[in-house]
Amino acid sequence: MPERKPSTLGALKATGYAPRPVKQEVRENLLERLASGTPLFPRIVGYDRTVIPVLVNALLAHHDIILLGLRGQAKTRLLRSLPTLLDEETPVLAGAELNDDPLRPVSARARRLVQEAGDDAPVEWLPREARYNEKLATPDVTIADLIGDVDPIKAATLRLTYADPEVIHFGIIPRTNRGIFAINELPDLAPRIQVGLLNILEERDFQIRGFPVRVPLDILMVFSANPEDYTNRGNIITPLKDRISSQIRTHYPKDAATAVAITRQEAWRKRVGPAVEIPETVELLVEEIAFAARESDLVDQGSGVSARVPIAALELLVSNLERRAFLTGEKPVYPRLVDVHMLLPAITGKVEMVYEGEQKGAEVVARQLVGAAAKKRFAGAFPTIGREVGTPEDKGPFAPIVAWFAAGNSVTLSDEQPYAEYEGELKRIPGLWKLAAERARTPQEQAFWAELVLEGLHQHLKLAREDLDSTVSYKEMVKFQLMHRASRGESHGDAN
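Above: the chain sequence. Below: its structure as tokens.
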């Protein structure tokens, strides 16, 4: 049978229990994990050599911390991982409001309970999950929410005057005593509310209205913020910045492989339904869309491009493959490049545009980002497209492909085509299927690479592409331009 935990103050004393501050508790548990080699934050990917070492140093130094980073950089997840560094359970006085330590009660009610009951005062055991609280900072947050206020109903019910500490209703921060409290998006707190945090961070106590209440809090304070707001001219008052001991910068994944690992962990892919196969090269292409957005002049880089973009995009890709499986009966179903254009809703809703991007339109910009990602994947797998491609002097691997389109041929690809029809369209193009075979393990992957070649030639202005709903047609560039101008009523002299 499991050992029975002490349920009274006297029984707890008999075990030799000794209180320790929460920051010391975190430090000692962290040192144990470091010594044993146990992973510190298993679900945090890409921070092993950057954010986590800095965070560890801050916690070992007993620092309150703030994570500075753009949206979608796992700031909240990292903060919510900190309670794993607390003890599994800790003793508190039963009925106390502030998680009072049985040997060191701080609230008036807890001290009175110990005075009246002595060693028979009841003890409860608080799990580590209950010792973490957080608050999203919004302009309507009040001091009463965070710290507390006088409760007139309590005063009337208990027949107490407002001078009695028992009439205080404590806020969420005091109720997290002996735990970890997080405030997300700190700059959104009104300056007068930020002032209320100064004593908690420095002197570790607080006051409520006119009460001379000095309750020493044992708490680890952690915050998150956007770096654009965290400046001398921003929305965080200087004295509060000065009291947060460590400022830690987060970041987006440094490379596509790390980004793929994050998306694999987070995206909902294991579903009940048709078998869906997504090769790594397609996963990398989806990640490159986010990387392209983070480099685009049309995207607001101050707002950031969240890691949720590729996560949502991959989930939409799986859904599109499921839909095609039911339409065509493919088993299993593999992705096509044309499928990627069905991911635009995951991009347009999460990427903030600058003025020029808004003028172009969110969907146009999203298509450009998809094209930039495809161009990068193409450049990493196929020979460089030089100026000679498409000229009579061209003897390279793309020559028969461009020549076939120059002869007036075209192909039309759709995400709803049966695979045999889709593959047949691609095989019509001389040299394309063989060129794609060098990088594929299955016919379905070969078809994807073949389509990527066409998109690469389009991105290098060797082929024209026309989008209509979920259908893509590749054509010869010059004739397409002439037809397009004719449809707008332009003459040959208007070409420039």
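The first strand starts at residue 65 and ends at 68.
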